[in-house]
Amino acid sequence: QVQLVESGGGLVQAGGSLRLSCTASSGAFSKYGMAWFRQAPGKEREFVAFASRTGAVTHSADSVKGRFTIARDNAKNTVYLQMNNLEPEDTAVYYCAARSTTSGLSETDFFSWGQGTQVTVSS
Fold first, then answer.
1. Less packed terminus of the chain by CB within 10 Å, N or C?
2. How far is 13 from 34, CA to CA, in rounded Å?
3. Residue 31 to residue 17: CA distance in whole angstroms
4. DSSP secondary structure code for residue 41 in this structure
């Protein structure tokens, strides 16, 4: 129903920053809660952050609180993940996902996913 494309990943040294973007090319973006997940080498995909339809309500994983911030601009059909003070443990493929009629934060609560963008943090 909605196509999602992530961008902004890359290679950064520990302590650096990156901002990821996820843009919806179709569908009613403002109708969807949006989230970021990540999958690190040798680990399962995990929840990172969520923003409600308007962005007024957000949630984030304990591992990134104080460092990562999720925000969205519905006029641009885009959700962002600002990542500061990056650590090698943040190295992962980052995915954005859309949720409509469910209320959970598990992978199965989201109906559309992007292809992911690689974030590599060197020490």
1. C
2. 28
3. 29
4. T
Name the pairing type of β-strands 10-13 and 117-122. Answer: parallel
Give the Å distances, CA to CA, from 40 to 81, 117, 118. Answer: 17, 12, 10
d(C-alpha 86, C-alpha 43), whole Å: 18
3-class SS of residue 84: coil
Give the pLDDT score at 1: 73
CA gap 59, 35 in Å, rounded? 9
d(CA 97, CA 39): 13
Tokens (6 digits) for 24 = 């919806």
**102 pLDDT exceeds 80?**
no
- Tell me the three state secondary structure of residue 75: helix
